[in-house]
Amino acid sequence: MRTEAIDRVRLVFSLLDADGNGSLEAGDFTLMGSRVVEAAPDSDDAAKQAMLAAFRRYWTTVAAELDADGDGRVTLDEFVACVLSPERFGETIGDFAESLAALGDADGDGLIDRPAFVALMTAIGFERANIDALFDAFGPSGADQIGVATWATGIRDYYSPEKAGIPGDRLVGGPAV
């Protein structure tokens, strides 16, 4: 497992831990899902519902895989072990990636413009400079848009334990990664 992958997942854990108590609970995913959906007011209800369902599935998978004592909490160490295991978490991440990217494509043309991307990534909690660096790494068109498939692939890569030097690394630390 690459250090870069662990750093990426540690960042996600810190963003998902909405109440900052050092563990993840179902409520963290409900809160994050609501924030993300609110950041996409022009998206249709089906896309919003798919995003909320993806956040529920994300939590359900994490809890089922890791909450052995049934206390409804998952620690950072437990989280890293699960989400960086494609055989345990790959399908859930795929669903999440497709839902988030589709939510950013409010008009259904297969493209996401920078403002929509920034709004969604800001709602998740990423830093603006890092968001812009990521968007630029995806190679936007002259109209400052990226493809839905490009973003979905980028999300999957973010959770890949063997990948380094990927666009998603720009979200960790400074934007000049």
Please explain how this structure is put together.
With 177 residues, the chain is mostly helical. Helices cover 60% and strands 6% of the residues. The chain contains eight helices and four strands, in the order αβααβααβααβα. The chain has helices at 3-16, 26-38, 45-66, 76-83, 86-103, 114-124, 128-137, 148-158; strands spanning 23-24, 74-75, 111-113, 145-147. The strands form two sheets. A two-stranded antiparallel ribbon has the order 1-2. Strands 3-4 form a two-stranded antiparallel sheet. Helix 2 packs antiparallel against helix 6 (114-124) and helix 5 runs antiparallel to helix 8 (148-158). The longest helix has 22 residues, at 45-66. The two termini are 19 Å apart.
The gist of it:
This protein has 177 residues and is mostly helical. The chain has 8 helices and 4 strands. It has helices spanning 3-16, 26-38, 45-66, 76-83, 86-103, 114-124, 128-137, 148-158; strands at 23-24, 74-75, 111-113, 145-147.
Helical percentage: 55-70%
Oligomerization state:
single chain
Strand order of the biggest β-sheet: 1-2
Give the N-to-C terminal Cα separation: 19 Å
**Which series of helices and strands comes N to C?**
HEHHEHHEHHEH
Runs in which pLDDT lies below 50 for 5 or more consecutive residues are: none
Alpha plus pi helix count: 8
Structural class by helix and strand composition: mainly alpha
The shape, in one word, is globular
Radius of gyration: 15 Å
Strand content: 5-15%
Query: What summary fits the major beta sheet?
Result: 2 strands, antiparallel
| Mean pLDDT across all amino acids | 90
Instruction: List how many beta strands DSSP finds.
Output: 4
